[in-house]
């Protein structure tokens, strides 16, 4: 009898054809087990012996399996009025009496009357033939239903995978566009600081420019990376703050503190630097007295919490300039962590701002 086809879970490189498809292991296994069970049941009252019934039923099952697979592939083209599944069902049904007759003809000893002239043998022939014609088309229909269902699930899985791939590519594209916005924003702001020193004739301009060049050599290649670590971000932040400290040595102090667990946490490039640059540009720089920037990063309960605190002019004076950089960062974090990231600003007393960022603590894949 033809076997059912189990639902596929992977997309094969090449679908089996020919005899490989007809004798597919899942089909063969089902056919042998079904035929064995049916033959064992019939064999309980079989006059010529239990094994005789089992062997004959299993032989019919294999014939049905081959007929099912044959008409599944041949002929390659069918008339429009004839469906492939109809040909398979009819082919299996027609094969049963022919195969039964051949079995009985071959099992008739030489010199004895043909099976149709022997009452007991004719009854056995009628039983096997009738059961084959009745059962095999239904089993074939069941196999076809399972096959169609497996194909539908296979296609649904393929569509889901393709859609997921498109969505992932869209997110990556959006993330890279946002990073492309960060790159000129950061570079132009930093170069503007160097220009101020040059315009003022500061003797530190050459030293600051040398440090900036060294910093950019390390920073620019990372702008296009898909992900970086907080440890690498802290190195960039330290270099950036040292450059800013040389520009305003009496108005900027800073500290950097991070747990060892936080150093390996994954984050989008320029995450920490965006917060620190924002603190310098909108908190420390506008005030005559300058201020202090404290950067802290720690991991608790699978979450990474980053705080960039400054004692600058505060939100009131800097509200007009905080939007672009932080809005960009908020969107990049949302794309990178699927919305599982929070960024908020807290006003400090008597003045200053604390930028608090929280996101899943995921280590960078090796």
Could you characterize the architecture of this molecule?
By secondary structure, the chain is of the alpha+beta class. The chain has two domains: 18-163, no CATH class; 202-360, 2-Layer Sandwich (Heat Shock Protein 90), CATH 3.30.565. Helix content is 61%, strand content 12%. The strands form two sheets. It has a five-stranded mixed β-sheet. A two-stranded antiparallel ribbon has the order 1-3. Helix 5 (119-199) runs antiparallel to helix 6 (205-219). The two termini are 51 Å apart.
Give the helices and strands, then pairings.
Blueprint: H1 18-22, H2 25-43, H3 50-73, H4 84-106, H5 119-199, H6 205-219, E1 228-229, H7 230-247, E2 252-258, H8 260-263, E3 266-267, H9 271-284, E4 291-300, E5 303-310, H10 315-318, H11 323-337, E6 342-347, E7 353-360
Parallel strand pairs: 2-4
Antiparallel strand pairs: 1-3, 4-5, 5-7, 6-7
Helix pairs in contact: 2-3, 3-4, 3-5, 4-5, 5-6, 5-11, 6-7, 7-9, 9-11
By secondary-structure content and strand pairing, the structural class works out as: alpha+beta
Strand content: 5-15%
Into which percent range does the helicity of residues fall?
55-70%
- Integer tally of domains: 2
- Average per-residue pLDDT, rounded, comes to 78
Order of helices and strands: HHHHHHEHEHEHEEHHEE
Span between N and C termini? 51 Å
According to CATH, what is the class of the largest domain? Alpha Beta
* CATH fold category name of the largest domain: Heat Shock Protein 90
Q: What kind of oligomer do you see?
A: single chain
Task: Give me the side-by-side strand order of the main sheet.
Answer: 2-4-5-7-6
Helix tally equals 11
The major sheet is characterized as: 5 strands, mixed
Radius of gyration: 39 Å
Q: Give the uncertain stretches in residue-range form.
A: 1-13, 317-322
CATH superfamily of the largest domain: Histidine kinase-like ATPase, C-terminal domain
In CATH terms, what is the architecture of the largest domain?
A: 2-Layer Sandwich
E-strand count: 7
Q: Rough shape?
A: rod-shaped
């Amino acid at each position: 009898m033809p076997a059912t086809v189990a639902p596929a879970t992977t997309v094969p490189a090449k679908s089996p054809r020919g005899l490989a498809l007809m004798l597919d292991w899942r089909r063969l296994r089902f056919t042998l087990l079904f035929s064995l069970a049916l033959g064992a049941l019939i064999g309980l009252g079989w006059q010529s012996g239990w094994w005789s019934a089992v062997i004959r039923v299993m032989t019919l099952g294999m014939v049905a399996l081959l007929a099912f697979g044959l008409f599944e592939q041949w002929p390659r083209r069918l008339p429009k009025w004839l469906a492939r599944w109809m040909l398979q069902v009819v082919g299996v049904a027609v094969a049963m009496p022919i195969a039964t007759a051949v079995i009985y003809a071959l099992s008739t000893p030489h010199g004895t009357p043909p099976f149709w002239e022997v009452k007991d043998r004719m009854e056995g022939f009628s039983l096997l033939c009738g059961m084959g014609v009745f059962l095999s088309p239904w089993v074939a229909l069941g196999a076809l239903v399972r096959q169609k269902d497996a194909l539908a699930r296979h296609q649904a899985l393929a569509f889901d995978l393709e859609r997921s791939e498109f969505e992932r590519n869209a997110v990556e594209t959006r993330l890279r566009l946002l990073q492309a916005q960060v790159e000129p924003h950061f570079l132009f702001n930093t170069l503007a600081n160097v220009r101020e020193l040059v315009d003022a004739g500061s003797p530190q301009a050459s030293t600051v420019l040398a440090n900036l060049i060294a910093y950019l050599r390390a920073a620019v290649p990372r702008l296009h990376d898909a992900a970086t670590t907080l440890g690498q971000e802290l190195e960039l932040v330290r270099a950036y703050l040292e450059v800013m400290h040389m520009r305003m040595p009496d108005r900027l102090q800073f500290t950097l503190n991070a747990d060892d667990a936080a150093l390996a946490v994954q984050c989008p490039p320029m995450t920490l630097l965006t917060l620190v640059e924002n603190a310098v540009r909108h908190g420390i720089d506008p005030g005559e007295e300058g201020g202090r920037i404290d950067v802290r990063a720690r991991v608790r309960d699978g979450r990474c919490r980053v705080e960039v605190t400054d004692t600058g002019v505060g939100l009131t004076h800097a509200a007009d300039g905080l939007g672009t950089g932080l809005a960009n960062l908020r969107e990049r974090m949302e794309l990178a962590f699927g919305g599982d990231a929070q960024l908020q600003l807290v006003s400090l007393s008597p003045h200053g701002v604390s930028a608090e960022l929280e996101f899943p603590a995921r280590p960078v894949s090796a």
